[in-house]
Amino acid sequence: MTTNRQPDALLEKAVFSADGDQIGMSRRLVADGAGTVTHVVVELPGAVEREIPITGSRPANDRLVVTYTAEEILQMPAPKATT
Fold first, then answer.
1. Model confidence at 61: pLDDT above 90
2. Cα–Cα distance between 68 and 79 in angstroms, integer?
3. Can you say whether the dihedral through the CA atoms of 76, 72, 1, 65 is positive or negative?
4. Where does 1-83 have alpha helices with state H?
5. Do residues 7 and 59 lie in contact, with contact meaning Cβ atoms separated by under 8 Å?
6. What is the pLDDT of residue 6?
7. What pLDDT sits at residue 43?
8. How far does the chain reach from its first CA to its final CA, in angstroms?
9. Reduced to 3 states, what is the DSSP secondary structure of residue 15?
10. Cα 82 to Cα 45: distance, rounded to the nearest angstrom
């Protein structure tokens, strides 16, 4: 799911991994040059953040389910610093 419609609906949601674990909360969105949201920055326990591609993800009520396992998410890069 790459979207530029209602991106705020993705913020402050519980984020669940593909294996059903709640991994954190969505905090920020990352968009490409056309303004299409491509990644969500998720705050994991311990204030660690990861930038997760949202392709294939699905919002559901109060949560966002991503297509990656918890282990895969831990291996993803931290978000780039914003200025």
1. no
2. 17
3. negative
4. 70-74
5. no
6. 60
7. 92
8. 27
9. strand
10. 21
The per-residue pLDDT for range 3-53, each reduced to its tens digit, is 444 667 788 999 999 999 999 999 998 888 988 888 999 999 887 899 988
Q: Which amino acid is at 60?
A: A
- Of the candidates 83, 21, 82, the one whose C-alpha atom is nearest the C-alpha of residue 39 is 82
Q: Please, is 79 exposed, middle or buried when counting C-beta atoms within 10 Å of its C-beta (0-12, 13-18, 19+)?
A: middle
- Report the distance separating Cα 20 and Cα 69, nearest Å: 8
Query: Which residue, chain included where needed, has tokens 């610093």?
Result: 81
Question: Using 50, 70 and 90 to split pLDDT, how confident is the model at 82?
Answer: low
Q: How many CA atoms lie within 13 A of 48 on its CB side?
A: 11
CA 61 to chain centre: 15
